Amino acid sequence: MIVENILCSNYAAGEFPARKEQAVSSPVGLHRVLVPKGVLPQAAERLDNAPRITADEVRITVERLNLDAASLRQLATKHGGDGDAIRADDDEIR
């Protein structure tokens, strides 16, 4: 997957909002994996996409994502080639 036009969102003033609690994080992102537990984020079926971030994470704004051929083929197979169903499928982007 190719990500274009990434903007780091350091909150224009250059400061992040104060954090009341610091979540425990993993240097390889294991703290974001929901299902199945213990796998790396790339292999996970479901990730935690909660907006809170830890000290070693960066919040970014993405304007466009380009799917690679394998990802598009997976979605097309799942939905029998129905373009509307593919666009409506938010399971693949969570």
Into which percent range does the helicity of residues fall?
10-25%
- Biggest beta-sheet profile: 2 strands, antiparallel
Mean pLDDT: 77
Q: Report the count of strand segments.
A: 4
Helix/strand class: alpha+beta
Order of helices and strands: EHEEEHH
What's the Cα radius of gyration? 16 Å
Fraction of residues in β-strands: 15-25%
Count of DSSP-assigned helices: 3
Q: List segments where confidence is low: pLDDT < 50 over at least 5 consecutive residues.
A: 1-16
Terminal-residue CA separation: 14 Å
Strand order of the largest sheet: 1-4
Oligomer classification = single chain
Principal-axis shape: elongated
Features:
3 helices, 20% strand, alpha+beta, elongated, disordered N terminus, 94 residues, two-stranded antiparallel ribbon, single chain
Describe the protein.
There is one protein chain. The model is unreliable at 1-16 (pLDDT under 50). The radius of gyration is 16 Å and the shape is elongated. Helices cover 21% and strands 20% of the residues. It has a two-stranded antiparallel ribbon with strand order 1-4. It is built from three helices and four strands; from the N terminus they run βαβββαα. The two termini are 14 Å apart. The longest helix has 10 residues, at 69-78. With 94 residues, the chain is of the alpha+beta class. The chain has a domain at 20-50. The chain has helices at residues 11-14, 69-78, 83-88, and strands at residues 2-8, 33-35, 46-47, 60-66.
